[in-house]
Specification:
Helices cover about 45% and strands about 10% of the residues. By secondary structure, it is of the alpha/beta class. It has two domains: about 1-125 and about 225-250, Rossmann fold; about 130-220, Orthogonal Bundle (Arc Repressor Mutant, subunit A). The two termini are about 20 Å apart.
Length: about 250
């Protein structure tokens, strides 16, 4: 599996390279310090994964990510950053990123995340997923959102937004994987969306003007994406300390 590292800070690239070198299946083929260099690297090397910080000085989600997708369609972009605001998350995912994780998780978490996006998974770090859960927990006071969905379909939609995969949703709701798949297909049809990203975006937009839930209303306990205990810490990478383990959802 070939990887290009794109980060403005050399110390971050050095730390990531050192970490990834411990995995026999990962080969770092190039580094980039700007978005332009990242795009050139994607075009010339066609890596399996491009690990990209959106704080690159010349980064523009709607330009950089779409250009990478154009010049190297097979490259999965993993946003690896300290930026966790909701707007940046959605802008990146809508522009084509396959994953979004923060610079604070166990070292083996980033290796597994890279492996996941390389095989087609969508990966969200736990704090990113928590934001989506919070958005979906904002209920209207006077009317129910998505009246076209059944109560069960709304449950499934919330778990999709949390980053859960079909198997985990099936376990959480005590359903068969086939039933979950059918629910998801129905949700996509009713919301007129084609994938998980669009479903999450529709749900988020529908709740932007809603009051925030009370702390006991949105407990991410049952769907929070937890990091593995005892994970190996990442070597020094700037101001970051430990990465949170990210999990994924299917398309």
């Amino acid at each position: 599996m070939t990887v290009v590292l794109a980060d403005a800070q050399p110390v971050v690239r050095k730390g990531l390279r050192a970490l990834l070198s411990s995995s026999a299946e990962v080969t770092v083929v190039a580094e980039a310090g700007t978005a332009r260099e990242a795009m050139k690297g994607a075009a010339s090397l066609r890596p399996d994964v491009l690990v990209l910080d959106i704080e690159l000085p010349d980064f523009q989600a709607g330009v950089t990510l779409q250009e990478i997708a154009r010049v190297s369609p097979s490259t999965a972009v993993l946003v690896f950053t300290a930026v966790e605001d909701e707007g940046s998350v959605f802008a990146s995912m809508r522009a084509g990123a396959r994953g979004y994780v923060l610079k604070s998780c166990p070292g083996d978490g980033i290796v597994r995340t890279i492996r996941g996006v390389a095989t087609g998974e969508m990966i969200l770090g736990p704090r990113v997923a928590d934001q989506l859960i919070a958005q979906l927990g904002r209920e209207p006071r006077n009317q129910q959102l998505f009246p076209e969905l059944t109560a069960r379909e709304r449950q499934v939609l919330e778990l999709i937004a949390s980053g859960m995969r079909n198997g985990a949703i099936a376990t959480q709701l005590h359903l068969s994987p086939k039933t979950v798949s059918n629910h998801i297909s129905t949700i996509f049809n009713k919301l007129n969306v084609s994938d998980r990203y669009e479903a999450i975006e529709v749900a988020r937009k529908a709740r932007l003007e809603r009051p925030a839930p009370s702390p006991d209303r949105v407990s991410g306990g049952s769907v929070r994406l937890a990091h593995r205990r005892g994970a190996t810490p990442l070597p020094e990478v700037g101001d970051s300390a430990a990465y949170a383990d990210a999990r994924s959802t299917e398309r």
